[in-house]
Fold each of these.
Amino acid sequence: MSEKDKKFAAALDSDSRRTPVRLAFLTRRTSPHVSVKDEPFVMTWPDALFRIMVAAQLVAIALVLVSLLWDAPLEGLADPLQTPNPAKAPWYFLGLQELLHYFPPVVGGVLIPTLVVIALIVIPYFNVNIQAEGLWVRNKPQRLRMLAIVTAALTVFLAVLKVWALLAATLPMAALMAWSAGVTPDAPNRLRRWLFSKPLSFWIMTWFLIQAALLTIIGVYFRGAGWEWVWPWSE
Amino acid sequence: MPDEQKQTPPVPQDQSSRREVFGKLGLGCMLAAGAGSLAFGYEFLSPNVLYEPSPITNAGKPDQYPVGSVTTNAEAGIYIVHGPEGFYALSATCTHLGCRTAWAPELGLIACPCHGSRFNQAGVKVAGPAPNPLPWLRVSISDEGDLIVDRSAVVPPRQFLRT
Amino acid sequence: MARSFQNYLGDLRESRVWQSIFRSGSGPSNLHRSQAIQQNLYLHLFSVKSRRSSLAIGVTWYLGTLSMVTFLILVATGIPLMLYYHPSVPQAYADMKDLQFAVSAGLFLRNLHRWSAHAMVLLVFAHMFRVFYRGAYRPPREFNWVIGVMLLLVTLFLSYTGYLLPWDQLAFWAITVGSNIMSAVPLLGPKIRFLTLGGNTVNANALLRFYVLHCVILPLAGGMLVGIHFWRIRKDGGLYSGKSGDESQPQVSQPHE
């Protein structure tokens, strides 16, 4: 708080180190207030804890059934002399493995994951999505131009590097964004109106989610020996 | 009156600066101890003795490798190539992410199963994400006339051994 | 049957021993129900009251709860598995075969552990996306989101380190590839890889290090972060319900505790 907008004065004439004095400053601008009115509350015990127990039991039962029906994979003894073909990581790393197919390890294995983690951490600190204002609510022509530039730049970049898997998610996403932009509030299409109300952060996260899902699916189902493209039904 | 003066510190400035000095001293000691623990931790975590296979391999007599052949020595993880210019050895570990490559005679190429890198007989990458060619390893002839390959000694490409 | 099971339970709860353990006493009053939460070290992580709107399934899909349940299943199955497992080469693989064929219920425990691990990764990811799409990371909950990101990383590291332990082909080559990604880190990469594996190749030292990380260090780290994560939910004003009053501002006064 700068000197200028200080709306109070305080003075002490005792030795504050020896005789602590508690002071309350009341300023004119802000005051504590209750912003929630009539929110219905229930007792955590038993209402919430019972629901949690039911949820826990359902997932435990489901996992026990899965474990009774399917056995965990176990291959041959580890052999440093021979790499199985294809050598696949667990499914949640296959998106990363697919990226490593396109980019050098320092980009696909270090730079991209680190940037993703940093991006996730800073989300709440950069006021991302706090206003949650629809992307197209204001400055629509300017933002559409921005979208076109970013999409074109990404397309060129990914096409030059031949990263078709990333391109395959980026282009439909950009098309969807542009489609949602040209909507009027009384448009009959509900999906389109719903998309219109979504902020930029929604679009970025959704792009990331689709991208990650697509890479993982390609890695799991569409890669065979030598990490060559195969169709899952061509066995 | 003199007693009272003793009880209350005459200048409050002194007290806070003394506390500051001890505070900084304590913080400094903790930082030093932290740095020391890091150094010791690093030393402790790096094993000084490793029980790993020797990098030096005896590949047998040279005359068992016909000219134009690429032979996989799986245990050592190397290829012994007898080209027209002479012998050389390549590491069989992919330079991309360390998978074990395999010689594919039908293609005349060395192929990596993990991310699809391909190398030719000279170790030069022809396809895939590998950043570097397969390294050439030092080949020598022992006193008994055996081929000796040292996996830990990478030599510049196109150093052939003639017998 | 003059006295039902309920009566016996009631007597038990009135007994001196029970009341010395659970001080809340029994009864349907809100005071007793509050004390059931307040006077229990573990339940104290919850607030005494919860917003009714935040308990609906459609709000959270209970993804955070389910992640925690899978974590507990993993601890409960992992500890018995440790009793039949030697982290040495090649004994580790023989132990896998023993668990499969020689140990009673060994196969089941291993299956449950493996599938729960997959489920946990899936649930933690789903939880993260759900929290994002509902905007539940907004202030004052921003630091709890960061803890959540750390917990995601702990989850991934847990499953990565666990992946090596069976010492089969799948394990060996997944870790070989993963550890070579580490060495792509500029400057420090090869050192990090050497320290993680305890050698230049994936071998006995690497197996032992991954075992200690998987069974001791990472579960402890995860447990501590989960503690903070839950406690912060309460301190940040309870579960985000997305209702009009519960916007980005910290709640100054609420009927909590």
Amino acid sequence: MPFSAYLESKREDCKELVAELSKSFRYVSVLGSEVHNTVFRVDRRSSTVTDGRGECGFVVKMQNSGAVYEYSLDDISGDKAAIAKKIIDSIEVEPELRERMISGAEITDEPLKQDFVRESDFDSYSEEYLLSFCKELKDKLLAADEKVVNATVSLMPYTTDKLFVTKNRELTQHYGWCNASMMVFYSDGKMARARDGENSHLIADIIKTLPTLTDSLVDKARHLAKAKPIEPGVYDVITDSSITGLIAHEAFGHGVEMDQFVKDRALAKYYVGKYVASPITNMRDGAAATLSAASYFFDDDGVIAHDTQIIKDGILVAGLSDLVSATELGTEPTGNGRRDNYRRKAYSRMTNTFFEPGKDKLEDMIASVKHGYMIFETSNGMEDPKNWQIQCIAQYGIEIVDGKLTENYVTPVVMSGSVPDLLKSISMVSDCAKVIGSGSCGKGYKEWVRVADGGPNLKVRVKLG
Amino acid sequence: MIDVINILKSTEGVDDYRVTSTKRESYELFFVHEKLETVRSTDTISTDVTVYIKHDGKVGDSSFSVYQSMDEAEVEKKVRSAAARAKLVSNESYELPEGGVFSGEIESNFKDYSMPVLAEKISDAVFAADTLGHGSLNATEVFIYKDTVSVKNSRGVDKTQVKYHAMVETIPTWTENGESVELYENYTFTEYDPEVITAEIAGKLREVRDRQVAVKPETPMSVNVLIGPKEILRLLGSITRDISYANVYSHSNLHKVGDSIQSGDGDGITITLKGAMKGSTKSEAFDEDGVSLTEKVVVRGGVIESLHGDSRYAQYLGETPTGNLRCTQMEPGTLTKSEIMAAPYVECISMSGLQVDMYNDYIGGEIRLAYYYDGEKTVPVTAVSMSGKLSSVLSSLRLTEETVAVDGYTGPKNVMLKGMQIL
């Protein structure tokens, strides 16, 4: 699938608007964004094929020195002088506030012209086929056990096209990703929900994998219907890849977003070059670090994607920055400037964040636990970059007794505590790792972007409640 | 602007349609400490179209967005594509809401100011709270929004509402003796009153001062816990989501009308869902289908009294649509300050998020700041988490007689959860 014909048709408009606004500003960029998302969803009694959350519009960034201005609009066709005047009028600042604007740092505009495409196979499948695929899986789940009272199956392929233009820079990119999920509602005395899913840039991968997960999904639901609450306490814990990713994301991903360094909000700013985790811990982030949901070619500031090592052998080595934060800190931007959509501001954000695999075998890790839990599947989490507290919610856990997994399921599982205590307690790291690309992440409680996270199994000692 | 409705009317096979449109104008300020780092403005329109096709005794629907960039031919193509998608969908038959013309504005004094002037005034009111020696406000973001929302459908609905609101996000910070702590504040409102804004932020600065000296208490312990409006809304939201028409229709609900969700001797919960509440950013005159919003008692005295929800699922269940009601009122209880202080308790001030899991009978979460009263004195505490059995907590909970009104909620200032485990 080629780059968006619509954005391509606006390339000259972008260049003309940059030229017009450059009469008033030293740095001007225009980001054009077009995202299309289709949702196929079925449950016991209804179905839908519809457009999901997409976008099509432009955001203009301007700077002389110091403070930055942005303006979001739907279309940039027409008289550029008139559009430029409207933009300048709209970002007018009251005189008293003007005196309180930051000064100094200037964004640089390094020359680069490049076009990027990552092919997907979305056009190879008709909508009728994909809806039928969902319906068949739903019917299979409902038929698996009479106690399955509802089942949902969804497929959500989306494509992203972006055009970035400054005086010296012209970049385009096109890529796609697809998330698929299944959920079972199981009634056996109490109601339980179990979910599973798959994601890929190829629908073919999903069509191959998803049907193989139905039996284990229903079996999981059976166990969860009998799950009990966990006895709060401090335990030896083995994480699955999803929970490992959640730890990476909440414990240190948010903590090294460098716009927080600018604001003196991240304790990590003072720990660069120091031990922050067990020496067997290595962690990375980057749109170019792996192929997953947050794998783009350039960020929303027009910075080429990076593969950033955050923790090396337990030592914090680098953070993640957007263009403005890097400019203010005097560092190289790392390609982590991301927007919720073209209507929103760019911040330093995570992309694909994960711990690297180690040398231990998962079976040895489980065998090493006298009494503890293996915990599975991210529900949600919350960061606290200043005070290094963490909360991670797992969907469920399985009790480990004398080095063996039991049939005792517990749910939900809330893991909380201090980030350094958690990371320094990592005592084993498995030799296999998986990055899961179905997540979304907010900054505080807003500014949602698609992210991936994951890694190997970790053995940690942590508080569960 | 393309005449989308004319295209829908002239496309063969389209039985019904709904067009919703939101024009959003915004002005936004982003501060680092008290220095202004970024100024943003937006002027965008989002238009969503749903096409309905009746076939084989069923109804299919499909939606798409119309972008400003599209020409007439592209919109025509999208309508035809949506009609084809809708034919793949076979849902139980239902009708769109009929008739009703409305044009109005949700009450706000924001219209008395230009956006840049209002943003400056709100910023001044926020920073006026910064009067405590070691306290500061960081990463402050001020958003001013004007939304013009309209819904039109093929059955004569033609409604428009104008809504203003502001959001202030700020990080109250306390730095003393080389140590720094912070809390998170997200404050939304629809009326500009500088004294109210300053008082809200000043309260958060006092709280972060207390976090700086907060200690981890002796744990584990079993104690009564007081939660405030944000956490109360999460708890009530879990209950009311369960009894939506859509959940009941899909067999995903836990409770039905007549079920008791409380079996003990606690205060009985009475919940009313409302379309609008003075000063609330959640207030709406009509929902996304154009259904006019009023109010509905859904839980009375701890017993499910009625379901609620949108037009389609109401029809499936043979009920009256309430529309999507986003404001929540709870009747106050009888709990007094002296009763609260009759036994040790923990009053949650800041949580990373209360977790309520009705399926697994769980309530809990991480506490970032709380006040612990041990029967004699009150001390700020941190670095603890709480958990409890939801059904037990609901059956024994107590509601304060003192009430409070925050964005989207009026009701008891605190709910007491008895016998929570603190770790």
